[in-house]
Amino acid sequence: MTSIKLAVIPGDGIGQEVVPEALKVLAAAGPAIGADVKFEQTQYDLGAERYLATGEVLPDSVLAEIRAQDAILLGAVGGKPGDPNLPPGILERGLLLKLRFELDHYVNLRPSKLFPGAASPLARYQGEGAGDIDFVVVREGTEGPYTGNGGSIRVGTPAEVATEVSLNTAFGVERVVRDAFARAQKRRKKLTLVHKTNVIVNAGKIWTRLVAEVGAEFPDVAVDYQHVDAMMIHLVANPSQFDVIVTDNLFGDIITDLAAAVTGGIGLAASGNVNPDRTTPSMFEPVHGSAPDIAGQQKADPTAAIGSVALMLDHLGYAEAAAAVDAAIIADLNERDGAPRRTSEVGDAIAARVAG
Amino acid sequence: MTSIKLAVIPGDGIGQEVVPEALKVLAAAGPAIGADVKFEQTQYDLGAERYLATGEVLPDSVLAEIRAQDAILLGAVGGKPGDPNLPPGILERGLLLKLRFELDHYVNLRPSKLFPGAASPLARYQGEGAGDIDFVVVREGTEGPYTGNGGSIRVGTPAEVATEVSLNTAFGVERVVRDAFARAQKRRKKLTLVHKTNVIVNAGKIWTRLVAEVGAEFPDVAVDYQHVDAMMIHLVANPSQFDVIVTDNLFGDIITDLAAAVTGGIGLAASGNVNPDRTTPSMFEPVHGSAPDIAGQQKADPTAAIGSVALMLDHLGYAEAAAAVDAAIIADLNERDGAPRRTSEVGDAIAARVAG
Ligand SMILES: CC(C)[C@H](C(=O)O)[C@@H](O)C(=O)O
Ligand SMILES: CC(C)[C@H](C(=O)O)[C@@H](O)C(=O)O
């Protein structure tokens, strides 16, 4: 009997609606995973609701418990925009990013696919003969402008100065670049570095150097480079050209939302915060947020959360079960006709396909 | 007789092809500008070609001369991508950004319009009944991660660390925010701040505070906020909701390329690097680069350069002539049928419409 300890953090808003559907599909995948594998789930109540009620974001004891799990499934965290009791950054820095940093999730994995039947807003992907979009963004998860390194002086005065420091280390860049090359080698053997080397020069140099150096170990992978601003144009005009994209934390945040937008929406975008060294539990979550405006109405699309389960199964070594979940998602998408379905209906439909 | 001293920097690649067309249209606009106004043009040979030939980027003497002009029209600068003799940043930091910083171009003005006839790649803007896109991005031009404040230690070793500092001052943020509010007040009275306040917390706070404070002086302007990643989705799904967007230097760089992409391409996107205090010459340039791959073939679209002339005329106080140029661009776009035209043919056609 293999027992896998799974931390479940539904979070806030639609996170609480999509996570049950993801777990439904995980249960349905049981036979594909193997009769001898059991997921022991522990729910953790974290997010805006807990913070507003108790002032707690991520108590050390909870972090210690989560650290002892094998994997984490997260829904979404975040309260009502502009809530004066919830200043921006409290939950993001204190919970989401804290988990990514503490658990050293240095590979933030974000696949983008134009699924058959998914509604891309791009005219060229309407109707028959649409090209294929199938790439994965390997976003660095522990450095760059995300380290919270900065400060302010003379706050609130006309002489205020606020700084933010982007930190880029050879240690941090090399490991994520190596992971990206390894993924490219198993795919279509193309890697694109995205940065802004012509302006953000120091950080640009370390990324450029390490892509060249690590790339020498992967001579069969073709390498190219795009500025982050030019990527806006490429992702809209010709997203099918990309295979694996490697980039820093902030640029990755931005381009993966655009990738989600052009492939049919944020409701489909799954992600993994992965520690490839497996010394800590990796965390899987939909790219979308808690969407308080539609929360509690069973309107949210749980597909991204379910896709995150597929990424988790793949990471845990159950490639076949992961493929079964992905196939069920695609089959479900193929049958969507635009008629609204309840969150639980989508979960039921995909779970039924996985089960059989 | 009013004499306006105009510095002309064609630059590299297609910059050398689109600038003559822009000047053609400026000449055609003569009567609309006024018989008593003369543009005294001085050409400055700057860019990759000059750097590769002489090692010079922007000699102090040239900068001093340019500073004494009334306005600057720039084509594009940049050599072949990956040219080992032209490391990334040399021209960008040494010429383009140097001009923006030295001349204190704190408002980087980038209007986005879906012109009738322009080919948006978005399905919802195909055919009849298309919504209107008409917004302007007011991008901060002298601060943020663009100041070149950073460095590297242990370069080339596994212990290398590279930093980049984003600098945000109340002085710098307030003035650009005030400019954006003033523009919104003359338009549809809506201002959207774009930032990443949930992660880039210190910088986010100074932007948020100053938008609130300056906004109190403009009670008739409605204010909202979007994270830069969420903007990717909004600009693809519903760009017509925006009126004036104010944002920092890097986020502005990124979202204006996406704005150009969704409104029919970078060949149409004009920009102004403006010093609203008029203590230095403002600089007008197409958003596109030097495009060495199509340079010298008369394939480039000069519309963005011509649109930059309209922005320049407006800045110089010739609103009617600016409107005439804009109207000629729209009329020309309306008649485009997708058949390729030479760069000079487009310039001739627009100039003819302006003339008469
Ligand atoms: C919520 C926020 C901290 C987060 C990020 O910026 O990484 C989100 O946008 C994401 O992409 O997962
Ligand atoms: C070339 C580069 C320095 C510049 C920028 O980043 O501002 C360009 O992308 C732009 O948008 O004008």
UniProtKB/TrEMBL annotation, chains A, B:
<dbReference type="GO" id="GO:0051287">
    <property type="term" value="F:NAD binding"/>
</dbReference>
<dbReference type="Pfam" id="PF00180">
    <property type="entry name" value="Iso_dh"/>
</dbReference>
<dbReference type="GO" id="GO:0003862">
    <property type="term" value="F:3-isopropylmalate dehydrogenase activity"/>
</dbReference>
<feature type="binding site">
    <location>
        <position position="253"/>
    </location>
    <ligand>
        <name>Mg(2+)</name>
    </ligand>
</feature>
<protein>
    <recommendedName>
        <fullName>3-isopropylmalate dehydrogenase</fullName>
        <ecNumber>1.1.1.85</ecNumber>
    </recommendedName>
</protein>
<feature type="domain" description="Isopropylmalate dehydrogenase-like">
    <location>
        <begin position="5"/>
        <end position="350"/>
    </location>
</feature>
<comment type="pathway">
    <text>Amino-acid biosynthesis; L-leucine biosynthesis; L-leucine from 3-methyl-2-oxobutanoate: step 3/4.</text>
</comment>
<dbReference type="GO" id="GO:0009098">
    <property type="term" value="P:L-leucine biosynthetic process"/>
</dbReference>
<keyword id="KW-0432">Leucine biosynthesis</keyword>
<dbReference type="InterPro" id="IPR019818">
    <property type="entry name" value="IsoCit/isopropylmalate_DH_CS"/>
</dbReference>
<keyword id="KW-0100">Branched-chain amino acid biosynthesis</keyword>
<keyword id="KW-0460">Magnesium</keyword>
<feature type="binding site">
    <location>
        <position position="229"/>
    </location>
    <ligand>
        <name>substrate</name>
    </ligand>
</feature>
<keyword id="KW-0464">Manganese</keyword>
<dbReference type="InterPro" id="IPR024084">
    <property type="entry name" value="IsoPropMal-DH-like_dom"/>
</dbReference>
<feature type="binding site">
    <location>
        <position position="257"/>
    </location>
    <ligand>
        <name>Mg(2+)</name>
    </ligand>
</feature>
<feature type="binding site">
    <location>
        <position position="139"/>
    </location>
    <ligand>
        <name>substrate</name>
    </ligand>
</feature>
<feature type="binding site">
    <location>
        <position position="110"/>
    </location>
    <ligand>
        <name>substrate</name>
    </ligand>
</feature>
<dbReference type="InterPro" id="IPR023698">
    <property type="entry name" value="LeuB_actb"/>
</dbReference>
<dbReference type="GO" id="GO:0000287">
    <property type="term" value="F:magnesium ion binding"/>
</dbReference>
<keyword id="KW-0560">Oxidoreductase</keyword>
<feature type="site" description="Important for catalysis">
    <location>
        <position position="146"/>
    </location>
</feature>
<dbReference type="GO" id="GO:0005737">
    <property type="term" value="C:cytoplasm"/>
</dbReference>
<keyword id="KW-0520">NAD</keyword>
<comment type="subunit">
    <text>Homodimer.</text>
</comment>
<feature type="binding site">
    <location>
        <position position="229"/>
    </location>
    <ligand>
        <name>Mg(2+)</name>
    </ligand>
</feature>
<keyword id="KW-0479">Metal-binding</keyword>
<keyword id="KW-0963">Cytoplasm</keyword>
<dbReference type="InterPro" id="IPR050501">
    <property type="entry name" value="ICDH/IPMDH"/>
</dbReference>
<comment type="similarity">
    <text>Belongs to the isocitrate and isopropylmalate dehydrogenases family. LeuB type 2 subfamily.</text>
</comment>
<keyword id="KW-0028">Amino-acid biosynthesis</keyword>
<comment type="function">
    <text>Catalyzes the oxidation of 3-carboxy-2-hydroxy-4-methylpentanoate (3-isopropylmalate) to 3-carboxy-4-methyl-2-oxopentanoate. The product decarboxylates to 4-methyl-2 oxopentanoate.</text>
</comment>
<feature type="binding site">
    <location>
        <position position="100"/>
    </location>
    <ligand>
        <name>substrate</name>
    </ligand>
</feature>
<feature type="binding site">
    <location>
        <begin position="289"/>
        <end position="301"/>
    </location>
    <ligand>
        <name>NAD(+)</name>
    </ligand>
</feature>
<feature type="site" description="Important for catalysis">
    <location>
        <position position="196"/>
    </location>
</feature>
